Amino acid sequence: MIERTPILNAVTQVILAVMLFVILIPFWMVFAAASHDFVTVNRVPMPLWPGGHLYENLAEVWVKGNFGTALVNSFISSVLVTVGKVFLASITAFSIVFFRYRARMLVFWAIFVTLMLPLEVRIVPTYAVAANVLTPFQQILDFAHIRVVLPEWNLLNTYPGLVLPLVATATGTFLYRQFYMTVPNELAEAAKMDGAGPLRFYWQILMPLSRSNMAALAAIMFVYAWNQYLWPLLVITDQQHFATATMQLQKMVPEGFGEPPVWNTAMAANLIVLLPPAIVSILLQRLIVRGLIVTEK
Q1: What is the CA angle 11-13-14, rounded to 5?
Q2: Cα–Cα–Cα angle for 221, 227, 228, nearest 5°?
Q3: How much is the pTM?
Q4: Residue 264 sits in which domain range?
Q5: What would the pLDDT profile of 84-124 be if each residue is shown by its tens digit?
Q6: Is 205 in contact with 191 (CB distance < 8 Å)?
Q7: Count of structural domains within the chain
Q8: Separation between Cα atoms, residue 226 and residue 223, nearest integer Å
């Protein structure tokens, strides 16, 4: 254990303060730029003290970017992705740790290897499946020379199309597996002696024990789903009704050549998009730290 001394404590506090200052500088610049008018924000250097046009810029951006609908779409898709990731990771890790079948470690490592395959790598086949979910089954039937034509099932411009390709998570499975391995075997044996089946043991014993892990994973995955841009941009063509908040940021940057960038409204849009994940991270900060570094037994 590192010895705690006044000098060491002071040094660590200074380092933490410097790092906090470095991290907060970009957020302060966004806030300051969002509070100025067009002329002031384009000065060189831009004033770093807040101006008096924040509410005006926010109101303009809210209407221009249709952020009322976009925030609802982002919230619905992010919550569904988060719930799906937490449930799928917990039940998968439960199967790997508490069921003794031969291929369980092979399944775990197959899931773990997918960490090296981000969404950008598999975006083309994923989009093809989202355009018609039954395409793989149709190809199997064609390969087997079975003359059956399956109907088309299109997930584009739908919430399932936004959510389902993002639900699987190797990181969550790994975190839950590590936690389940700390649960004493005697607890599972006692539950079995009391007549509890696998699902009852999972729901009534493991889930309450893993509240901290669940909150930490949920907060991380909510921010991950909220910040998604590439997949919603591909799967959503009806941007009037299904566009997410991150997609609407693109409309705040001028596309015409020679058109001056309106950075005050663009930064105001960033504030709107930044606020929900920031609130989630702040509210769940203690649970995030506890779930990631503390082992409950």
Answers
A1: 65
A2: 90
A3: 0.85
A4: 58-293
A5: 999 999 999 999 998 888 888 888 888 888 877 777 788 88
A6: yes
A7: 1
A8: 5
